[in-house]
Amino acid sequence: MARIVTFGEIMLRLSSPGQKRFVQSEFFDVVYGGGEANVAVSCANYGHNAVFVSKLPTHEIGQGAVNALRRFGVNTEFIARGGDRVGIYFLETGASMRPSKVIYDRAGSAIAEAEPEDFDFDTIMKGADWFHWSGITPAISDKAAKLTRLACEAAKRNGVTVSCDLNFRKKLWTSEKAQSIMKPLMQYVDVCIGNEEDAQLCLGFKPQADVESGKTDASGYYEIFKGMREAFDFKIVASTLRESMSASHNGWKALIYDGKEFYESKRYDIFPIIDRVGGGDSFSGGLIHGLLSYPENQGKALEFAVAASALKHTIPGDFNIASKEEVENLAGGNASGRVQR
């Protein structure tokens, strides 16, 4: 299988139990997660040699994050150790018309303060088939933005395919700052992944679609995908489309365009949602696996990715631990949910 490198931040996630509000909670459930770490777990779960690159403190909380990745088969040999803290985020899971909430406590985390000397990116990229990063990483700090550029440059020197999930986070930076950093980084990207908000706020492209009202006609994305490919020379552009009927009930599908074929996936009606955090990351991990496994069939690759992310919505925690066989069964039309005996 392929060697897939991801680079970013893994955080400590503290969740109020069930659907409790923050102010009701007397304790929090503890897991680890983060955009690129979630992608690495998905890829390892599909049988790839997934390598996660970051920086974590040497104390027990940092080691807990390393152990969480190792538990699911992720290669952690290039995680630098040092710094003062692990980033934290608090999650309150919504229900019905009440949305979920996230509160970040990540300033000054080890990866936000990391230096170029912490990573030998040419060594890391040697022999790799794929490198993935997201817009969250350069948003963490100016230092992390520089490291992202250095990682991309090393990937290109070593002939590695690069994917980026745009992943705009308004609590981390403004659209103006995002575009000033993200647009120059797009010169290194082969596969661009994002939703309609990401494309607009990170790159300045707005599709003719109103997702909030459920108007997700694929035709509204065709011209924007063409424009993005022409502006940044992407090989492939993909977008997820989420219809939010409520916090507990979403419609979920995706689109992909390689300059020749514009393909729309089947739509999944997800209800009830158990945990939507990491849904986009599970799509990215599924798409990477799909494109590597079915390089001549982008439609099949996309159907795998959408099925993988639909399944993630049924699994608590950041990581998608649905097996390759489970994803393939769902993509093939088996959505009955019957007990497997």
Automatic annotation (TrEMBL):
Superkingdom of this entry's organism?
A: Bacteria
Domain Carbohydrate kinase PfkB positions: 1-314
Alphabetically, the GO molecular function entries are: kinase activity
Question: InterPro entries, from UniProt?
Answer: Carb_kinase_PfkB-like (IPR052700), PfkB_dom (IPR011611), Ribokinase-like (IPR029056)
What keywords would UniProt list here? Answer: Kinase, Transferase
This protein's record includes keyword Transferase:
yes
Family, according to the entry, reads as follows: Belongs to the carbohydrate kinase PfkB family.
Q: What is this protein called?
A: Kinase, PfkB family
- Species of the source: Hoylesella saccharolytica F0055
